[in-house]
Amino acid sequence: MPQNGPVSTRNRRSASAPFRIQPAAVLVIAVVLGLFIGGLVIGGTAGGLMVGVPAVFAGGWLLLRWQAIDPPVRIIRLVAVLVSLAIAISLFTRG
Prior knowledge:
Shape: globular
Radius of gyration: 19 Å
Helix content: over 70%
Number of strands: 0
Distance between the termini: 72 Å
Number of domains: 1
Largest sheet: none
Number of helices: 4
């Protein structure tokens, strides 16, 4: 059977390997979600900071890694950062 070139095993391995979430990622998600919910509950300047500071860091991280991220994922992350910033601004004005 003729081959048209070297066969990559990368896709075959990644397709068969189970998706694993790192424990550190779970911790980060829990902390960010806790800050977000806490900021919404507290409101005012403190709540705005609790939501806004992680959003600013996430936006900076997104800008640094922009070229390495797939375009659809970029848009989703950009929207999430912008929505978080809008919520932070509304929290600042609320109280």
